[in-house]
Design the sequence.
């Protein structure tokens, strides 16, 4: 039978190494048997096993063997290539071998750690090793291209994470654009009254940072703006930003707020989002007095001028800076940056999803964020703990874990709620004479000074009941319960079900991903975990990197976290971005695709397939051509080329076919 | 008489089109006849099997064998010619990859026999008589060839030096092959004697093919008024051109019909049908399963469409079960 | 000798989602059947239907293709191309008598280590129930009809009482 398969006349000399990884691999796989088996395969010049291939002596051994045994190819069977492919490529280079003459076999994550049948696992490892030895023969020498990195940075999100990252980068001399969706930076932290465990006033520690952002020469603050589109790749991103219209010229407004007083609405009428709907504002407003930038804005839904065109416009009249511009439209700006830090924060759990707690049904039921505003001296009640009807509550119940640790809503622990529930308990006691009950499942106080804070609370007269609140009801069973809210809970430490009458219920809502997290992460081409938070590259080793080079994440957008950890993480993200920028260049992985000009017939099948628009038709020759700098190495074009004229480096047809053959050969 | 190089033509499971292609050489056939001695050509000359058997091994310079191998007689003949030839040229799509006969690999031989001799509506065979490979008649044994279980390409039975693709190969390509043989300027063994690029290279409609194809449906040729200038794929017709080797100068697109893939794939492709699936379906528009399925429904017979000439050489070769 | 049939399944996993999920399954020490050998590609869109057919032709009893969920491809839309191609490939496989269950296209995200385990275990059992495909073995069987004639032609044919029908 005629066999047209290309056979190599002289097989390149292959060096094969199987790692024990202590007992991680050797405990399940018979490494000696594999070493012996591979030694007998054609073309294998060296076959060794070793305890820790990634260690210095392991890598030395490779470099040594390459020189001594004139090895032309290298195969290492060990952990996942996502962990150590780079390590062994460097070892090959050290020995004088092109680093891409290397193939890694995953026999730990994909074999020793997941199989119990040692014999079957060893046989599988033999199959995979044989496949790698067959494949590596077809590898070509390659080198990594270098592209310059744009030194500017984009930070998305102006909460404490974004603010800290921006300041760090700006202090390092980088030009930062900080894009924030709301009209002011500050994020959730700006809502808080005091922060645990030190009970620092949130505004006092936050506002200096906010001013620093505003006045920093290296930071361009684009508030009331959103990122529309992101194109490009690490070191070379092109970002389109939408600037939403405030109808006020930001450069002219000084924040005197005379316009708010002058507004034709004599009374503030509309629910105030900043105060969680507990306060009211006018159509012309500013989120809070320390808002940054200190510029008012108009709400197009409620402003009479914007809705009907027929208003006295006393706001504009009274403005001696002539800052009002009712014709303002949304604007698009394009910027170029080398790195992007995402710090888009979290969304509080919607308490309405737990109807048994009566939020939205009973006026006495509040969320924790609403209470933050109540106890805040600059909040809607000037710090007084009063109910919506103005009465003072005699008893307050704080329910932990609302929308957390719950199979029906969110399985995770939101990390900060126990601490802030304790904080709120303390503040409520400070601001009122109410009895305070905290209903908890566990008391989670892991941070520095947290347990001590809890201790302090224990001596302040707050009642702690360990039990998950079943429901809140206004159905009274005894005269004491009339007209009040009754909390029903099993007191697990005491061992019986209790009914506790209160006047105010505070639901400690958990932290969730932002409502548009999926949309945002697709825009930036990063992933989300199964819970919906942005996916880090590695939970321990790379918590601020994502799988997309050049894009970093920090703060609660990655997972629920408190302010100290958020600030630390923001610094880490800034550091990663700085490392990228200060290196000056980035090396591109060489697994890009290219068209073999002599073979291309110009059928144009490949051109529309590239998401990075890297493929074009060369006008004169009428053949396809791939821009290797834009190519990210997915290989879709290589698979689609109907005449087999596109090669993807490291994933050529020959290489993959030989791997298939190697895996299945008996 | 001076010894002219000896050349043989033979046909296995084929339609006779390859013989016609040789005849289509027209005046050039005289040049061929002048230069060589045709010592076998069943369609045109009366040489017998014994004549070939009597020749010394490798005394035939080249045998051009067309047709797929389906019966024991064809197998016997091709083995014989292999023995007696220096060079065997696999001639035409059937020899190269099974051709249209290879579509029979979608059925079991038994099912075919049953249909042809029993179940077909035009049969009148109540006794269910079947042909036999051997029977006795007046004391003599008569034989008929047996059918193989599957249709094979030529090189799945004997070693082959060169391949002339096409259904049939064009006269131009045939002349080129004959001349190469006579002058000794032969490419490496195993070469397909046709440019190693896709048909789009030769197709006049190439420029009209958009670079952003996003097909929303497939149509059969009889369902469309085919625009004679525009790229056929862009018109929603299944044109195998991109996945088919060039060499015919795009005869079918030139005749306002889509290419059906008879020249087989380029040397860089293992399975023409699979590669075509990889390419054309990357360029359909829908992203959801329902939308995709609606587009795919426009091709009711994937095997027949993508492996019209190449089923024997497909990675799966025949239908299982 | 009734040894339990151990299916040989070849899997193509995309680096960013499915391969990472398989790594996660390993890190989490989840346990699953050893019948699946993984070939790594950068994107499921690299998987040429030729690879799937070649795997079957070389003896795979099953082929598994793992990619990112639609909309989540690390390279934006590679997995849509995969989906389109593979849905036609499934029709082709059916037309060639290779039944549902031997070829499986599965979307597995980088966080779904558990799903890797479930899919591998499920598919192993399903293919086990379908039995071996063994195309190389079948091809050898089919080609037996050729060996007999080869021997016949290559020895000098004796003159028998055989009259060829003409």
Sequence:
């Amino acid at each position: 039978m005629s066999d047209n398969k290309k056979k190599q006349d002289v097989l390149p000399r292959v060096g094969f190494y199987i790692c024990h990884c202590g007992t991680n691999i050797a405990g399940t796989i018979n490494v000696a048997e594999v070493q012996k088996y591979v030694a007998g395969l054609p073309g294998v010049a060296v076959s060794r096993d070793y305890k820790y291939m990634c260690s210095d002596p392991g890598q030395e051994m490779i470099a040594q063997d390459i020189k001594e045994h004139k090895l032309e190819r290298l195969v290492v069977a060990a952990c996942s290539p996502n962990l150590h492919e780079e390590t062994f490529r460097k070892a090959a280079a050290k020995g004088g071998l092109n680093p891409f003459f290397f193939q890694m076999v995953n026999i730990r994550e994909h074999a020793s750690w997941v199989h119990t049948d040692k014999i079957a696992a060893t046989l599988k490892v033999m199959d995979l090793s044989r496949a790698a030895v067959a494949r590596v023969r077809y590898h070509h020498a390659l080198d990594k291209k270098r592209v310059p990195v744009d030194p500017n940075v984009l930070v998305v999100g102006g909460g404490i994470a974004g603010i800290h990252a921006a300041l760090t980068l700006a202090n390092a001399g980088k030009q930062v654009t900080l894009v924030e969706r709301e009209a002011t930076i500050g994020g959730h932290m700006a809502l808080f009254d005091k922060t645990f465990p030190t009970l620092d006033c949130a505004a006092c520690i936050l506002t200096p940072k906010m001013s620093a952002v505003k006045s920093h020469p290296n930071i361009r603050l684009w508030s009331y703006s959103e990122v529309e589109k992101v194109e490009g790749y690490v070191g070379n991103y092109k970002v389109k930003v939408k600037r939403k219209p405030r109808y006020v010229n930001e450069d002219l407004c000084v924040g005197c707020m005379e316009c708010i007083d002058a507004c034709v609405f004599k009374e503030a009428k509309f629910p105030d989002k900043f105060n969680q709907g507990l306060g009211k504002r006018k159509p012309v407003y500013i989120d809070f007095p320390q808002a940054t930038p200190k510029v008012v804005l108009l709400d197009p839904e409620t402003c009479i001028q914007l809705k009907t065109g027929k208003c006295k416009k006393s706001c504009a009249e009274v403005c001696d800076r002539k800052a009002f511009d009712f014709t303002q439209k949304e604007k698009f700006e394009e910027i170029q940056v080398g790195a992007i830090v995402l710090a888009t924060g979290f969304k509080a759990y919607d308490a309405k999803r737990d109807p048994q707690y009566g939020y939205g049904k009973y006026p006495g039921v509040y969320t924790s964020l609403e209470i933050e505003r109540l106890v805040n001296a600059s909040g809607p009640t000037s710090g007084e703990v009063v109910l919506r009807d103005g009465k003072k509550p005699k008893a307050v119940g704080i329910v932990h874990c609302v929308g957390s640790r719950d199979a029906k809503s969110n399985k995770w622990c939101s990390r900060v709620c126990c601490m802030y529930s304790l904080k709120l308990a303390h503040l409520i006691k400070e601001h009122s004479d109410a009895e305070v009950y905290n209903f908890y499942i566990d008391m989670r106080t892991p941070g520095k000074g947290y347990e001590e804070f809890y201790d302090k609370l224990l001596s302040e007269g707050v009642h702690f009941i360990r039990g998950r609140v079943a429901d809140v009801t206004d159905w009274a069973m005894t005269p004491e319960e009339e007209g009040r809210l009754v909390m029903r809970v099993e007191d697990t430490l005491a061992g019986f079900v209790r009914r506790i009458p209160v006047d105010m219920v505070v639901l400690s809502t958990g932290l969730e991903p932002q409502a548009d997290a999926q949309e945002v992460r697709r825009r930036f081409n990063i992933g989300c975990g199964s819970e919906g938070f942005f996916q880090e590259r590695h939970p321990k080793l790379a918590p601020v990197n994502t799988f997309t080079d050049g894009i970093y994440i920090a703060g609660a957008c990655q997972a629920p976290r408190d302010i100290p950890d958020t600030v630390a993480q923001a610094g880490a993200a800034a550091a990663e971005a700085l490392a990228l920028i200060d290196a000056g260049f980035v090396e591109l992985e060489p697994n890009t695709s290219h068209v073999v000009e002599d073979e291309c017939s110009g059928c144009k099948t490949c051109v529309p397939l590239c998401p990075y628009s890297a493929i074009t038709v060369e006008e004169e020759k009428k053949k396809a051509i791939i821009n290797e700098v834009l190519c990210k190495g997915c290989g879709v074009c290589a698979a689609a080329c109907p005449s087999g004229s596109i090669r993807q480096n490291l994933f050529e047809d020959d290489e993959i076919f030989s791997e298939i053959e190697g895996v299945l050969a008996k | 008489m001076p010894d002219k190089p000896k050349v043989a033509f033979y046909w296995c499971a084929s339609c006779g089109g390859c013989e016609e292609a040789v005849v289509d050489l027209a005046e050039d056939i005289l040049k061929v006849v002048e230069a060589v001695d045709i010592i076998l050509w069943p369609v045109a000359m009366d040489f017998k099997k014994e004549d070939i058997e009597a020749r010394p091994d490798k005394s035939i310079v080249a045998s051009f064998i067309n047709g797929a191998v389906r019966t024991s007689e064809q197998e016997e003949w091709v083995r014989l010619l292999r023995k007696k030839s220096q060079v065997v040229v696999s001639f035409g799509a059937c020899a190269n990859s099974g051709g249209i006969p290879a579509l029979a690999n979608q059925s079991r031989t038994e099912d075919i026999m049953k249909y042809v001799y029993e179940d077909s509506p035009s049969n009148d065979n109540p006794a269910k008589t079947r042909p036999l490979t051997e029977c006795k008649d007046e004391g003599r044994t008569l034989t008929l060839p047996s059918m193989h279980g599957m249709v094979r390409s030529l090189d799945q039975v004997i070693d082959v030096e060169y391949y002339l693709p096409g259904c049939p190969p064009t006269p131009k390509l045939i002349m080129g092959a004959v001349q190469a043989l006579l002058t000794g300027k032969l490419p490496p063994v195993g070469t397909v004697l046709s440019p190693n690029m896709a048909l789009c290279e030769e197709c006049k409609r190439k420029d009209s093919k958009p670079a952003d194809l996003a097909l929303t449906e497939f149509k059969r040729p009889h369902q469309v008024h085919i625009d004679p200038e525009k790229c056929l794929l862009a018109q929603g017709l299944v044109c195998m051109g991109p996945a088919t080797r060039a060499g015919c100068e795009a005869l079918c697109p030139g005749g306002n019909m889509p290419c059906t893939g008879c020249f087989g794939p380029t040397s860089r492709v293992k399975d023409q049908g699979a590669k075509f699936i990889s390419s054309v379906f990357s360029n359909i528009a829908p992203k959801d399963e329902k939308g995709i399925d609606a587009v795919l429904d426009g091709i009711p017979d994937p095997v027949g469409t993508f492996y019209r000439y190449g089923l024997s050489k497909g990675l799966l070769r025949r239908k299982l079960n | 000798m009734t040894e339990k049939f151990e299916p040989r399944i070849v899997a193509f996993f995309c680096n960013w989602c499915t391969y990472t999920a398989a790594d996660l399954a390993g890190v989490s020490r989840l346990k699953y059947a050893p019948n699946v050998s993984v070939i790594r590609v950068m994107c499921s869109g690299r998987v040429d239907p030729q690879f799937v057919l070649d795997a079957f032709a070389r003896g795979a009893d099953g082929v598994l293709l793992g990619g990112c969920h639609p909309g989540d491809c690390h390279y934006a839309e590679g997995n849509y191309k995969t989906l389109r191609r593979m849905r036609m490939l499934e029709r082709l496989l059916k037309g060639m008598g290779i039944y549902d269950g031997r070829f499986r296209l599965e979307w597995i995200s980088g966080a779904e280590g558990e799903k890797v385990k479930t899919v591998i275990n499920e598919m192993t059992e399903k293919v086990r129930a379908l039995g071996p495909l063994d195309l190389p073995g079948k091809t050898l069987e089919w080609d037996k009809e050729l060996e007999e004639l080869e021997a016949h032609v290559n020895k000098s044919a004796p003159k028998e009482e055989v009259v060829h029908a003409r």
